[in-house]
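User: We ran a pulldown and think these components assemble together. Before we commit to crystallization trials, I'd like a predicted model of the whole complex to look at. Sequences follow.
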Amino acid sequence: MEAVWADIPLEHFLVLSGMLFCIGVYGVLSRRNAILVLMSVELMLNAVSINMVAFAVYTAPTLFIGIIFTVFIIAIAAAEVGLALGVVLRVFRNRGTANVDEVSALKW
Amino acid sequence: MTLLFFYVMAGTILAGALGVVLVRNTVYAALFLIMSLLGVAGLYILLSSEFLALVQVLVYGGAVMVLLVFALMLTRVHELDKKMSGDQWPLGAVAALALLGAFIGMWTQTDWPRDPDQVTLVPFATIGDALFNRWSVPFEIVSLVLLVALAGAIIIAMQEEGER
Amino acid sequence: MDDAWLLPAIPVAAFVILLLTSQYLPRRGDWVAIIGMAAAFAIVFPIGKDVADAIGAGEFHGSARSWQWLEIPGYIEIRMGTFVDQITLVMLFCVTLVALLVMIYSTGYMHGDRRYGWFYAVISLFVASMLGLVLADNLLLLYFSWELVGLCSMLLIGYYNDRQSAAEAAKKAFVTTRIGDVGLLIGIIILFTQTGTFNIGEILHAAEAGDIQREWLTAAAVCVLAGAVGKSAQFPLHVWLPDAMEGPTPVSALIHAATMVVAGVYLVARMLPLFEVVRGMPELITALGLTTTMLAAFMGLAQRDIKRVVAYSTLNSLGLMFVALGSGAVGAAMLYLFAHAFFKALLFLASGSVIHATEEQEVDKLGGLWGKLPLTAPAFVIGALAMAGLVPLSGFWAKDEILVGVDHGHLTPIVLWTLIVSLPITALYMTRVVMLTFFGEPKDHHVHEHAHESAPVMTMPLLLLAVLAVVSGFVVFEGVGEALGFHSGWLGFIFNEAEGPHHFEVQWGLTILSVVLVVAGIVGGVWFWGGRAEPARRAGAFSPFFYRMFLNRFYFDEVYQFAIDKVVLAAGRVVAVFDRVVVNDTGVNGPGEATDFAASLGKRQQTGLLPNYALAIVVGIVVIAAVAFGYRG
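Assistant: Here's a predicted model for the assembly, 905 residues in total across the polymer chains.
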């Protein structure tokens, strides 16, 4: 795969990751089901990961710091999903719903 | 050739992502998410990071997705929700588009550096070596975070005494 | 003399012990207080011997000992300590002896009382604060003790706290003396700002040397005198003392004889050099004392309560002491104080014994008790005669000294003649109360039949005080003074012999006149109120106006009450409205309500809905990005 990306500019990856990120944001803001909200968060995390890897490859390929960071992001994402799903399950058991707009006890 | 591959992958990713945030059936949304994540793995291969591609497929496609689907199953209410989107979805759309506008403004105003000549495939061994030498402390911390998070998740989700 | 600090310390220790443990001690711990007081009384003797030796050895101007209390380096050092001289010694002797006898007497009088332990605890603190007051070498410590005396008097006057009138009397005593106390505090502050010290000796020295500005000195003297007037119940702050009868009778004895009202006399005596350099001050003191004496003498004529008559006689005596001080006759004033402590304690304890025996204190319901109370009645009569000033009882010598002192003083002769006029009136009302209580027909046969003599624990202090009331006046003679270990008689003791010819002298004219007047008063009293008391009734009917004036105490209380109701309370209501509306509603509640209102608007943004918060985050990011772009242009 020698120099296969030579004809793909860096901006392509950035635009892709930005669009993915905004789609994820829209999902977080509009979805009602908490698990779908979590999925949207995963989209945002992946957008960031793409960004990281692209930058690493295009600007400092010998250091590959971006790749290492992406590994960490994936690990943290796994932790976050596990924890968040635990919370969602608990909320569902207590309140009978997994919809984020039906849980609003923490207010005035 | 590679450009075409990139566009195919990009199309897959974006289509999957839109599916996640738009479809009404939650299980379909999960399948769309898998599609999107696999597309990202393809991009990693394009960026000559096979290791990441493998991790992406294993962790996301495997572990995370299984967790999500299990959660969907456990929190399923019998009748499907009439409304999948919250009341503020137009506002959310506007905000997301505004954010995209901010990104576009940033892209166009930045002179991106590029040094593609030196790009080489990073072998697994090198990454492993870096992870366990130079990045060993962050690595261990991440491991610890993962452990604590999973233990916490179990405790939170565990059935309490007297709970049905 | 250096161990004088032990005197107040021992009763304070007794107070603390009783306060904490009296419930668990046998007899509620009254013996703790009595032993403590006896120890304090015993300590007076070595101190007295030291003083006598020091006087004999030459010039003696008091012995001071002090410790550093507070220091702000480079600015001020405040020391506290004790100061012992002849005046102090007289006070120490009177206070400890009377307090000891009162405590012993109280074991009988207060027996079985609900708050017996508390009574002894407070009495101990009361005496301790009085001892601290007379021993203080600086005005700050003096003021501290002064306030403690006021506090303890309030607690003791209001001892029967389930009685409305006792609570009222305690409040009245506290508030009335407080008027004077504030004056004293202001005076102390003025003196401190002018001299930079609280030490009494240094202040007096500065005053005599003219180091204090005249205006400030006058203001300070008036303020300090106000304190003394309040505490010693001089006109016009005399109204609290008769009401202080609401306390247990031993407390009245203590207040009147030893621990409270003489504090003002002591203060004036101690600060006399300060008063004497202020023009008009001696005249003011004399005028106040004279007014008090005359008012009290007349008011005493018509009172029906046996304790109240004795209380007015105290006002009478205090007025005499102030007159003596105003004339500069410190020795005479202190002699009267000395004698007065014993015969007044005797009168109160004896009337307490009468009340204890009959459970009745209106003289209208007593009578014919002479045979029924074989010890109390003679004791009371001795006290009354001493008060009246019959030769050769102690009251006679003390009063005679005052008359001589006033005659020698530089004041107008009107003072002397007014005093002489008051003498037969004093004799008259003291005879009246004796006649109505112990002689004549019993007015209430039920009371009369149930009367019985009190227990020995109460009558023994009476007898001892009776003996002292008879003999304590003899200390004026040099021979008696020398027999007691001093180098001359009373006046030579109070004043250093080196300072001048302060020897006992008899002005035969005055003496004979006073004796004749006193005897006339007594005879008149016997004639008026003896038998079925017909002449008195006729006299009362003859001038009902004066009778009502005397009985109602010249309407002082009514006038003061009117002033309080119409002026003080009205002003208070205005202030209260200000406080309610401006301070409370606007100043305090206003910000609170404003916050509450703002919060009622602002709280709406906290919807509790997760998507709203997430939206806010995204909007925030967009705004920050827009701002950043704006800066980059």
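The domain at 10-95 of chain A is CATH 1.10.287.3510 (Helix Hairpins). That may be worth checking against your pulldown data before setting up trials.

User: Thanks, that helps.
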